Amino acid sequence: GGIRPAPTAFDQPVMAQIRSYNTSFTVKEVYNAINNGVYKTGFATAQAAYEEAFAALFSALDTVEDRLSRQRYLCGSRMTEADWRLFATLIRFDAVYFSHFKCNRRRIADYPYLSNYVRELYQVPGVAASGEELLSLAGESDADLVIMRGHDGAS
User: Fold this and answer.
1) Distance CA 54, CA 119 (A)
2) What integer pLDDT is reported at residue 149 of this predicted model?
3) CB count, 10 Å around CB of 113?
4) Nearest to 131 by CA among 143, 142, 122
5) DSSP letter string, the chain
6) pLDDT at 89
7) Phi/psi zone of residue 76: left (φ > 0), alpha (ψ -120 to 50 degrees), beta?
């Protein structure tokens, strides 16, 4: 009998990794430089604002690429909310932000670790249908899904 405590989503080692992640390259920085950075770049009304947002965006992508070269997910060996927050932008990057928002230094497909990371998250059950729906709402074709399916088009 008795009431059992609700299970927690994170154990202590994962929480330590998240705290480390939050101090070295914060979720807020990912949001500002990447998630919101694509919009700052795409909707900049002055050249200086565009260049500043563009540089911050690609610096942040380079930082995440470096992190993913050493660990599987943003916060270590387990998927966390931080991964899904970033995924929402990365899944649309090549199809939408690269050309329409002039975030065109490199595609996510050109980053070995970021592209593998997006492909892995895309393979989580239920995500592929959502990803294709997001791109179709943005007016993009199935050809734009190459990053998620792999360069050869295989799922």
Assistant:
1) 24
2) 46
3) 16
4) 122
5) --PPPPPPS--HHHHHHHHHHHHHS-HHHHIIIIITHHHHHHT-SSHHHHHHHHHHHHHHHHHHHHHHHHSSBTTBSS--HHHHHHHHHHHHIIIIIHHHT---S--GGGSHHHHHHHHHHHTSTTHHHHHHHHHHHTT--GGGGHHHH-TTS--
6) 94
7) left
The rounded distance, in Å, linking the Cα atoms of 119 and 115 is 6
Mean pLDDT in each 10-residue stretch from start to end of the chain (155 residues)? 50 60 67 94 97 97 95 87 90 94 96 96 83 52 44 42
pLDDT for the residue 106: 97
Q: What are phi and psi of 103, to 5 degrees?
A: -95, 70
Question: Which residue has tokens 């914060």?
Answer: 26
